Request: fold
Amino acid sequence: MMDQAEKLRQVIEELKAKQLGSRMAMPEPPVKRSARVLTVTSGKGGVGKTNVTVNLAIALSEQGYRVVILDADFGLANIDVLFGIVPQHTLLDVVRNRKNILEILTDGPRNTRFISGGSGVEDLLKLDRQQIARFIDNMALLDKLADIIIVDTGAGLSDNVMSFIMAADEVLLVTTPEPTSITDAYALIKMVSNRDRTKRIRLVVNRAENSMEANDVLNKLVLVADRFLGLKLEPAGYIINDDAVTRAVKQQQPFMILYPRSQAARNVKEMSAKLMSTENADETQQNYGIRAFFNRLVGFMKT
Ligand SMILES: Nc1ncnc2c1ncn2[C@@H]1O[C@H](COP(=O)(O)OP(=O)(O)OP(=O)(O)O)[C@@H](O)[C@H]1O
Ligand SMILES: [Mg+2]
Reply:
């Protein structure tokens, strides 16, 4: 056991040294003990979560942050499809103790890395306490490897998705301007506020016709959440409905890479800058990191 942990630490040091070399020109990200864990979710399905996850990850990586994506949509391999990459291993291999976390990290474009969930989280529940503790120790290495971990979930109000929401440091809630999507987003906000009114929820309006429509949706949801639920939603930004998105999806490439000058790409860049602005990411804001994330996740799932 000690041997393996020691080896992992060594590999991490090597990785760090390598990254330092390739990122000399980048601004040094602030030194943090834990990664910031951001869960991307929505009330209604198909509103753009996976596109937001992947393209935001690339924008953040281009800003110089170390980004890891966790694909927690266990039914369908979302991230794989949008990256056009088939990973060799999944979280299940770590849960079953066949691989360590470093062996299941798959390289994505632009220095991003991702983890395929597979049915890993469901299997987590079958482990005993000691096995869970070992799994979490292993996952905790991600706190050293990443500045930000973005968790892409399936849609809806299932227990599993709720666990991922409640376990995260913060939530990025995606909605479109369609009334059905807004209603489902509100239902989700309500469920979260019933459990924890202090949860940081950031709102993204995707597929807006223009900035006016986007801001209108943002303002309305912020207002009703405050008035009826006493929960402070934070506007994270918006993405315009843009052909570049569908064209990129068909080519299984992120639009940030294929069409970096598209309106959608510019919107995502703006969002990532805001997300990492001192106001939203300063040292006074506590990130509990990936260890706490999995501890809480297991706790929520067991109850
Ligand atoms: N800004 C946009 N402009 C145009 N089309 C978009 C935009 N965002 C998403 N789409 C379209 O919506 C589709 C679904 O997006 P995506 O897969 O990211 O949604 P999702 O919320 O992850 O879906 P699921 O709930 O199934 O996981 C995309 O394939 C694309 O065709
Ligand atoms: Mg998806």
About this structure: The radius of gyration is 18 Å.
